[in-house]
Task: structure prediction
Amino acid sequence: MKRIIVLCLGMLFLLAACGSKVDGTYKNDEMSIKASKDSDRATLHLKSLENDGGIFGVEKNDGNVEGRIDKDKKTMTFEVQDETMKFDYKVKGDKLILINPDKDDEKIELKKE
Result:
């Protein structure tokens, strides 16, 4: 589960680092990121985190994770299940690319809505 999240965030990060500013909603099949060029905040939505609490009353989760964008360093940071996930990003056309800074070959691409 954590590898999927890291890979997804890494891919998302790659898409954001390719040029212009992160602005709008970017998504793929597993996740989406909403950000504004006027803010240093972002919302990451991971479908894998969604749950309705289930029959055992586990805490409900809408799949949203709040994070920060450092536009100077072109990084995004999110706290997911007590783990810090940090990604480099670039924006290339209508794509946001997230890159895992520890593994440059792990990238996540999201397309702007």
Remarks:
- The chain has one domain: 2-112.
- The chain has a mean pLDDT of 83.
